Amino acid sequence: MDVNGVPYLALLERFELLPAGAGFSWNTADRHVCLARADAPRLPARDLIAQKRPAPPCAVDPLEQIARIGPATGGRASGRWIEVTLDAGLPSERREPLRVAYRVTTDAQGRELEQIPADAEDAVLTPPGNQTYRDLAFGAGWLALPSSDGTAAALQVCDTRQRRVMATALPALPRRAAVAAGGRVWVLAADRLLSVAGGPLPQPFSPEEGAFRPERDNPLPLAVVATFALPPGLAGVALCVAFEHVWVLCEAAASEQVLLRLGASGAFTRLVLPAGLPWFADFAPIGDAFAFLAWPAASDPPRRDAWLAQPELAPEPRLVARAGRHPLHPLESPRFTTPSPSGPRYASDRGPSLLALLPQPHFVAQASGELPRALDSGELGCVWHRLVLEGTIPPGCALRIAARTSELPFTGPGEGWVEQPAPTWIPQSDLPWHAGLAPSVPQTSGHFELLLQRTRGNVRRLTGRFLELRVTLAGDGRHSPSIAAIRVHYRRFSYQEHHLPTVYRQQESYDPASTLANGADVRERFFAALEGVLTPIEGRIALSEWLVDPLSAPRSLLPQIASFAGIALDPSWPEARNRRLLAESGRLHRMRGTPAGVRLALDIATDGAVARGQIVIVENFRLRRTMATLLGVRIDDRDHPLSLGTMPEGNAIVGDSLILAEASARAFLALLDERGGSDAAAVARFFDSYAHQVSVLLHGAARALGAAVERALARFAPAHVRYRIIATDTPFVLGLSPLLAVDTALEPEPPAEAVTLGATLLGRGDLVQNGVAFIPSAAPE
Fold first, then answer.
1. Residue 201: phi, psi to the nearest 5?
2. How many contiguous H segments (helices) and E segments (strands) does the chain have?
3. What are the residues whose beta carbons fall under 8 Å from the beta carbon of 466, sequence distance 6 or more?
4. What pLDDT was estimated at residue 579?
5. Structure letter (DSSP) for residue 350
6. Secondary structure (DSSP) of 488-502
7. Which member of 117, 302, 411, 475 has the greatest number of CB atoms within 10 A?
8. Predicted pLDDT at 119
């Protein structure tokens, strides 16, 4: 609502802005509506023969070693081993495929693997019995290998870092496998989805003969932990783990395909693929969408494109095709490999190739459609006032709006559309101090407005409870207009109706047969042009206090506001941190020189690390503990660094140091002086040794903030206080962690880092770690 009391309705989300009909698309990154891309992908023809061909998988490790299921050679059956081709950048003598081989030793927990030369036939990794490998998947350092012989099935998981292999039986014949980031393996069968978790003990275990042991030495062996039945009539084709969910591509009747998403409750959400597409063999995430691959038909040219689609669950589950071309090299197999940091890679005839979008866009020439929902003012006879649009209209492009009104809800497409004037660029927003969702470029980008009106009749007002809008976008093929937001102001504030005598106000009703507007209507629209300029100015004046509010003031005014508060901003700080410093300046002045003030200053300088418990300030005198039983003195201080309020009394030693009352506690201070003396002298020496000294402990992620803490202490700590900064990875409740072995810091335990010469301290957590590689002995030196 503006300063005149005129409310508005805002349209910001996709389900509010994306018009019905073809020709429009939603840009998820920039959150705006624009013309659809016209460069449709070149998809393979739908060939029912090609779709049933097996799609051999492959995986790539960080050293660019490519693993595949070994073909039939030398009298050996196909699918009985895994072979690895080294990166083409290595010497030619090292490019021959090598078989993954391990020296296997059996213990009570499973199989412990050690890499040995690949020419040892008895050490080649093979599936159990007469089974053959059906798929391979790589992720999180694990190589998952499902296998079957038509009746029995198993899953082998090779930990390429620990050089271990795990195996478990599967209750269904596997088709595909995928490895999640946490090490969980998902196996897809024809009618179900299996979740496999577990692993071997951290260290090899050789039990002593006759020693007492639990019934099962390994509490979490590799095993199927959950089974999810696919909906009836669907058969699993491919799966992947993306967007924190498991997605399954299924085949339905008549070779149609469906995408399923496994929810947290164990139920599947169905997203139907549009008709007329080829039969896809694999899919993988790319950005916020999925890329699909299919076998090319025999009649197809060698170069085809991947199909990209974005899953959307609101307002109803569906797959939205994303235009644009992702050209492919001729496929060795329609399968994706392990993605790289640059994006997904696929198995082409040139090896694993990166899937990339052609950068030059090509848009449709024009699109027109109604917005998804009509606007409801809630008032009969409402006068719709002004429309403000945020977006871009590049040179050579156009954007037009049409509107229609009704006192009753719209029931379908109809007539009565009124073309509105072309939107006019305005230099500032209709909302006070609103920077806008699009950069302000004169006549091209920023805010555009138009006065809602009719084109015929004696009274040009648009009246009615409901308003529906139709948007028309036109471009030059290379550029597209865009809409980031629409605001419609209603219940018109007319200067003529509020400030002129009654004789000048509108006296007539709307007559559609009239071609000329009456004088009152001309004056009203003339005054509306002035009101459209003055109202935003009045709104900015009415909210001028925003200019001195640290959280809303323009960035250019922050130094001036800081001078009013007597605070100097740090130019190296981010804007949000400087704004908080200004907002807390009053509290900082009141608490300056106190421990609470220093804690607040450090919390600001570290973006909340003190509040998160990552930085603790300890006054050194509080670290001194006596051996007294202070039964009369409560020390349940919630801020005490030793206990944080968990110890209501002193220690439990009862003897000569027993103190029963706070008044008697002062006599005990004399014991602090080993040479004897008065209470005052002992207290003076005590404070000389421990007072005016603080230790600042940096824990966890705060260890990287040492420089910021140093600058903040030099600026805000009292000059007579000496401080010491200590970086530590131990918990902060010093009185509990050593005694109870409890991690009192509520944060995830950081993973062990690799041993580094000159930096690693013995016993401090760093480990000698193996690199992730299918064949470590063949890795480049």
1. -65, 155
2. 11, 45
3. 374, 375, 376, 377, 405, 406, 407, 408, 409, 410
4. 92
5. T
6. EEES---HHHHHS-G
7. 475
8. 46
SS3 label, residue 139: strand
Q: State the CB neighbour count (10 A cutoff) for residue 517.
A: 18
Nearest to 184 by CA among 193, 175, 192: 193
Size (the chain), residues:
781
Reading the block at residue 244, the tokens are 């924190």
Q: What are phi and psi of 522, to 5 degrees?
A: -65, -45
Q: Tokens 């209507």 appear where?
A: 521
**Residue-level pLDDT at 660:** 47
φ, ψ of residue 474 to 5 degrees: the values are -135, 135
Cα–Cα–Cα angle for 593, 594, 598, rounded to 5 degrees: 85
Q: Residue 264 CB: number of other CB atoms within 10 A?
A: 7
- β-partners of residue 627 are none
- Report the chain (781 residues): mean pLDDT per 10 consecutive residues: 87 88 82 86 78 84 87 64 72 62 48 44 77 92 92 91 85 94 90 91 72 80 94 93 92 85 92 86 90 85 85 82 83 85 84 83 90 91 93 94 92 83 92 88 94 90 93 92 94 88 86 86 90 89 86 86 86 90 90 88 90 82 51 51 49 44 51 53 66 82 86 87 81 53 58 80 75 76 57
Q: Rounded to an integer, what distance in angstroms lies between the CA atom of residue 453 and that of residue 522? A: 11
Q: What angle do CA 579, 581, 583 make, to 5 degrees?
A: 70
- Does residue 346 come out as left (phi exceeding 0), alpha (psi in the -120 to 50 range) or beta? beta
Q: Is 61 exposed, middle or buried (0-12, 13-18, 19+ CB in 10 A)?
A: buried
Separation in Å, CA 176 to CA 56, 169, 234, 239, 502: 11, 15, 15, 7, 79
What lies within 8 Å, CB to CB, of 187 at 6+ separation is 144, 146, 155, 170, 174, 176, 177, 193, 194, 196
Which among 315, 407, 457 has a CA at the least distance from the CA of 18?
315
CB 315 within 8 A of CB 285: no
The answer to whether the bond into 315 is cis (omega within 30° of 0) is: yes
Please name every residue paired with 145 in a beta bridge, in sequence order, or none if there are none.
156
331: left (phi over 0), alpha (psi -120 to 50) or beta: beta
Q: Indicate the burial class of 492 (C-beta count within 10 angstroms; 0-12, 13-18, 19 or more).
A: buried
Q: Is the dihedral of CA 518, 521, 525, 527 positive or negative?
A: positive
CA–CA separation, 779 vs 781, rounded Å? 6
CB 204 within 8 A of CB 216: no
C-beta neighbour count of 159 within 10 angstroms? 19
8-25 burial by CB neighbour count: b if 16+ within 10 A, else e?
beebeebebbbbeeebbb
Nearest to 474 by CA among 372, 401, 396: 396
pLDDT the model gives residue 471: 95
Alpha carbon distance 764, 443 (integer Å):
62
Look at residue 489 in the predicted model and tell me its pLDDT.
94
Distance in angstroms (rounded) separating the CA atoms of residues 528 and 536 = 13
- Neighbouring residues of 234: CB distance < 8 A, sequence distance ≥ 6: 250, 251, 252, 258, 260
Q: Catalogue the E-assigned strands of 625-677.
A: 629-630, 658-659
Report the alpha-carbon distance of residue 591 to residue 468 in Å, rounded. Answer: 57
Strand partners for 495? none
Contact yes or no for 2/534 (Cβ under 8 A) = no
Pair 375, 96: CB distance under 8 Å: no
Q: Are 110 and 128 in contact (CB under 8 A)?
A: no
